[in-house]
Amino acid sequence: MRLSRQTLPRLPAAVSRPDYDPAAVAVGIVHLGIGAFHRAHQAVFTDAVLSENPGWGICGVSLRSPETRDALAPQDGLYTLKVQDGSGERLRVIGSVVEFLCAPEDPQAVLARMADPRTRIVSLTVTEKGYCHNPATGTLDESHPDVLHDIAHPDRPRSAVGFIVEALVRRARAGTAPFTLLSCDNLPANGHVLGRVVTRFAALRGAEAAAAVRDVAAPSTMIDRIVPATTAEDRAAVAAALSVEDAWPVVTEPFCQWVVEDRFPLGRPAWEKAGAVFVTDVSAFETMKLRLLNGSHSTLAYLGYLAGAETVAEAMALPGMAELIEGLMREEVSPTLPPLAGFDLAAYCEDLLSRFRNPALRHRTWQIAMDGSQKLPQRLLGTIRDRRAAGAAFNRLALGVAAWMRYARGFDEKGQAIDVRDPHAARIAGLTGRVTEPAGIVAAYLTMTDVFGEDLAQDAAFRDAVTRALADLMLHGAAATIRSRPALPPHAG
User: Fold this and answer.
1) Rounded to whole angstroms, how far apart are CA atoms 479 and 318?
2) Considering the entire predicted model, what is its pTM?
3) What's the pLDDT band for 189 if we cut at 50, 70, 90?
């Protein structure tokens, strides 16, 4: 038997379930990018408050694959949230996602749902690359193939931005107010970035589209929860606990944080009752999380993968890694952060180290390593720019960048191929494939000014620090380099 509304009453008493009737929930939110993170984060916040207002159900849209739809539509959208750490696990059935659409199969159905007056929020977790933007500048990549396609064929878009603008045009034609755009991706000022690319895309489409997007609210958010990819073992364990099959549960940690700018002209769910924090400016929280959690996570992932660690917890157990990451946070990242009144930054860093060590979460280093060319600007490079402006050391940050360069070339320390998932993987292979010396490899990467910007590409101290770090990785290997880095001198050289 499958998990469904019909089998919901048969679940063991220890399994939490919706305190509302899932069949009575109506769609009020369209979410683009219905992946594991959304189902472990925003959908959970929404699930917790639907008993008060069942008009805020979620329509989950897949922009690429029908996989999630095919797994969960037969389950009436129900799925299991498994929260686990070293002390045990807790299971909860989530019912807030009540409709699934696959954009490539039926773009008109997606546009119709977005244009529906009952849709008041369109949220996104499409990853950094889904914004079709230049990561170094945060502006629309006007030469992106999906952007060019969607301008030429506005009625059958491919990109999130294309769907948003066409849906807003249709709403304007019908006299319907624009929905609120809610980015939940790891981008600095994610609402501002989304608003910027939407506005520019609309301008390229013409006057009607530009007018349709003019009054769109796009609040910024900060999201924080570690969500590994679901494995076959996870599915088997959940099925055993439920006594029914769940085709796609999600596994996560107890920690969960959501900070949101409170700008929702058409209303919103009472997410604050589920623990969300509403503020007038999210930027300080966002910078803290991107640089401390995400910057450390990326550094862990690239170094850990190269050293043979499959998971984050295994990477943290490597000799020297915990000290390296702690030094990265305390000595190189924390001094760059804006003040947060009443917030204990040292305690937050300790919590991060504990979360990274969580043995119950098998968060694969390979999963975190995806799309590095899109992630580095906000996770590591912005911090390096601030350290350079202050004349301060950035050795550990440079090592994180070098580890990505080593990883993204596509083969590991034993010469075995790495399955590099990055929108610029082919470009990187072309730039670096024939180069063997660290200095030449770094020079080739720095031609990617859409990633590094003109400033870092021409910064001799940055180039030298990354070249030294890459030379260490290539000569000594990741494991030996990790062991040596906590004892580095305090100056970048």
Assistant:
1) 7
2) 0.86
3) very high
